[in-house]
Amino acid sequence: MSLSRVLTLLRLLAAQPAGLTLAQLCPMLGAPKTSVHALLRGLLSEGYVQRDGVMHRLGPQSFVLGAALVSARSLAAMAVPFLHAAQARSGETVVLAVIDRSARTLTYVEVAESQQLVRYSVPVGTTRPLYATSAGRVLLAHQDPAWLAEYLRTVELRPLTAKTLTDQRQLARVIKRTREQGWGSTLGEVTSDVAGFAAPVFEHDGRVDAAIIVAAPLDRGRAAAQRLTAAAQEAAAGLSKALGYAARHSPAPGKARETA
Questions:
Q1: How far apart are CA 137 and CA 160, in angstroms?
Q2: Over the chain, what is the mean pLDDT?
Q3: Contact (CB, 8 A) for 195 and 232
Q4: Which of 3, 18, 39, 159 is spaced 20 to 30 Å from 177 by Cα?
Q5: Is 3-58 assigned to CATH 1.10.10.10?
Q6: Phi/psi of residue 54, each to 5°?
Q7: What is the pTM of this model?
Q8: Count of CB atoms situated within 10 Å of the CB of 39
Q9: Is the domain 68-242 a CATH 2.40.50.140 member?
Q10: In the chain, where are the structural domains located?
Q11: Where in the numbering of this chain does the IclR-ED domain appear (predicted)?
Q12: Cα separation, 143 vs 170, whole angstroms
């Protein structure tokens, strides 16, 4: 199904809470009945649309997605001063990443870019696999154990660089260590010349849906690993506190280690 047509259909239904019929939707979408019917059938099966007789309305999954987007945007707005403080402290690019459990990826929702001539640069909206990124491993380390076990059992560990970790048992050990130490790092696993250092952002109830990353060119990041890890931890702890989380303790930053 065409993504643009899906989005248009959802926008049309959002503008008409009482719902629209198939006959009404066809001219609005400029598409034949068979195409619109197939589109609706797919969205119905996923819960993004619901049907009551001949009327079609937004389904519960549309509202779940909308709430998640609003939440991510609100979190990003709250994170801005912490990201900029970490950027000023570290001199490197600082990123807020949010987990997408259904896609099993993370998305960069806010960026405070380094002012250095040679720097890590990434646009807002970029997605990354969880298994290969410092933020992804931090997020994995704080997920529900059953969800994590299913993820580890089924994820395809596709190499992104020569250093990407592709052994599931080794990944499980790295995730365990990440949870214990309170931070994660990767050196050249997603992009061969980039190092990342990440710490979890806790919601008021202890849930972790986001992480803050300090990212730098590989050689510079490796040389300043402890300082950059500390900058990520400080920013994440500050944002967590702003969200109402009361931390029991903050693990001390340590030296980044190669994981592949």
A1: 15
A2: 90
A3: no
A4: 159
A5: yes
A6: -95, -5
A7: 0.71
A8: 20
A9: no
A10: 3-58, 68-242
A11: 61-245
A12: 18
